[in-house]
Design a protein that fits this description.
Layout (H helix, E strand, L loop, with lengths): L2 E6 L3 H12 L5 E2 L17 E8 L8 H10 L4 E6 L4 H10 L3 E4 L4 H12 L7 H8 L15 H11 L4 H8 L3 H15 L4 H10 L4
Parallel strand pairs: 1-2, 1-3, 3-4, 4-5
Helix pairs in contact: 3-5, 6-9, 7-8
Length: 209
């Protein structure tokens, strides 16, 4: 059984570079660098499928949506997030969204190879600070204790609480209105609410805004 690899990144040169880095592992790697339909891709054959997807916290509609969508449709797919911004929030968001593991997009080749090897074995190689942040989200019995969103998301809620429309919020931070609706829907799911009204109520009660 081989391993099919997809690299989803806006730069063809980077995609080819990642494939070259992974080829040094001596594994039987195959597959397109970036399949046309990532969600349908794992359905082909019995090989293990691994997708390395670049995500940029400053552009949540590029990458985050892909991870959530493919994991929702195909749980077998191993997803490794390539973080354009190497921040604690980005690591946590990657795991919460559905990635098996995450690594900085500009990490050294040996680091990318190491994280990849762990991911295909069903393990996640993460910085200790990320594990602490994830652990802080649940109590000792695994009961959620704090679903406080990132500071960026809190700022969105703060704007909405002041009466700003979703269209105005999208224009302010540089997204399309359609992308803003998708991002807010993801935020509502993350904090366990169904709509804007419930989100603002929870944000107020939690002291976030």
């Amino acid at each position: 059984m081989g391993i099919k690899v997809a690299v989803c990144d806006p730069l063809p040169t980077y995609r080819r570079g990642v494939m070259a880095i992974l080829s040094d592992l001596g594994l039987s790697l195959d597959g397109p660098e970036e399949p046309e339909d990532l969600a349908a891709w794992p359905a082909a054959g019995q090989d293990r499928h691994v997708a390395l997807i670049t995500v940029d916290p400053s552009k949540p509609d590029q990458g985050w949506d892909s991870i959530a969508r493919v994991k929702g449709l195909e749980a077998r797919l191993v997803v490794l997030a390539l973080l354009a911004e190497d921040t604690l929030d980005a690591y946590v968001q990657a795991i919460v969204t559905g990635a098996t593991s995450a690594v900085a997009r500009n990490a050294a080749p040996e680091v990318i190879r190491q994280v990849f090897l762990e991911a295909i074995q069903g393990r996640s190689l993460l910085p200790a600070a990320v594990l602490s942040a994830l652990a802080a989200r649940v109590g000792p019995l695994g009961i959620p204790t704090d679903d406080r969103p990132s500071e960026q998301h809190i700022e969105w809620l703060r704007c909405l609480s002041k009466g700003m429309s979703i269209a105005e919020l999208a224009q302010t931070i540089g997204y399309s209105e359609r992308a803003m609706y998708r991002l807010l829907k993801g935020l509502y799911t993350t904090i366990g609410v169904r709509n804007r009204t419930e989100a603002l109520l929870k944000a107020s009660q939690g002291g976030w805004i």
